[in-house]
Amino acid sequence: MRAPWPFRPQPTLRLRLTLVYGALFLLAGLTLLGVTYLLFDQKLTQSFESRFATEPGMNKTLFIAKDGVRLEGEAAVEWVRQQEAVLHNAAVTSLLAEGAIALLIVAGGAVGLGWVVAGRVLAPLHLVTDTARRIAAAPLAERGLHERISLRGPEDEVKELADTFDTMVERLDHSFDGQRRFVANASHELRTPLTLNRALVELAMHRRTASADVKELGESLLEINARHERLISGLLLLARSEQDIADRSPVDLADVVTYVIEQTAADARDAKLAVYEVTAQAPTTGDALLLERLVHNLVENGIRYNVDDGTGWVRVVSRTVSDGRVEVEVSNTGPNVPPYDIPLLFKPFHRHGTERVVTGSSAGLGLSIVRSVALAHGGDVRAKPRDGGGLIVTAALPRARA
Hints:
Layout: H1 13-53, H2 58-61, E1 63-66, E2 69-72, H3 74-137, H4 157-205, H5 212-241, E3 249-252, H6 253-263, H7 265-270, E4 274-279, E5 283-286, H8 288-304, E6 313-321, E7 325-332, H9 342-345, H10 366-376, E8 380-385, E9 391-398
Parallel strand pairs: 4-6
Antiparallel strand pairs: 1-2, 3-5, 6-7, 7-9, 8-9
Helix pairs in contact: 1-3, 4-5, 5-10, 6-8, 8-10
């Protein structure tokens, strides 16, 4: 049994329209040539036959001198008919041959003209397709929703399609904006009662009459309150990082890595982890605070999701790569992570198994914030399992121009 052909190119709409237009023109030309042939043949035959039908006695008196030979009567008439048949065949053949050549030339020009006309007619559809492709290719769906077709032209079906598409995208853009504003406003509103709760718990714990049970309960409440504060701060940062970065400044990721490792040194010691730093210049531009949060979340994630037997480590590398980008790579030890589960790690509130958590203070937003910050700066984040367990997470950003 023969295997199916692996690739079957589909003709474009422009090519199909051109072929249909050319086929219709060729069919119309063949019909016109056929009608012309029938009319010409009929008219020529009637013209030759009418010469002898009008004068019956002419056949007896007709004579022709041919090559010194005198032809009279029926012989002369027969010779004339032979000459008329030759002329008739030559005329008809010339009509068909030259007509066919002219038809092919004009048909070729018509196909070329049809290709140009089809391209101009389909140009607005290409504009719609290109805009939809740019929106679909945006790193995040809401990042490309500012694109509009804004098609100008007559009020026809294509312009109606483009205007409908613009209206749909505009409504989606408003919906995503409203969602971001809601998250930011809700997070701001929730900060006040959490701050008040923390103050009340601390006040109750530090009273002279507070019992040991009250202090123990207060510690538990403060821990829960702190986790909620981290969650709300993460939501605020996530909402902020999903906006475009308008004010950019030069940032060297090597300096950020050094600073973040110093800030997280206590957490690494508490988790009994070794942290290795390999820094090289990695200049980029963007929001310094967001980039610091990106590196901090990567390092914190490497510390938090690790082994707890005292043999774990975290390795942080900053470098400039050859394709005009800079990278921060964080690798760590830990249990094996299935490759199919890696995309889920970048979704908000997703954790890969509680058994990997060394400290239980995670809000499940770390890698989500990393991805949003990287995309907001025109970069991306990728992760892969490390041989022997753990992850290798790499954040790539555009390199700063000299």
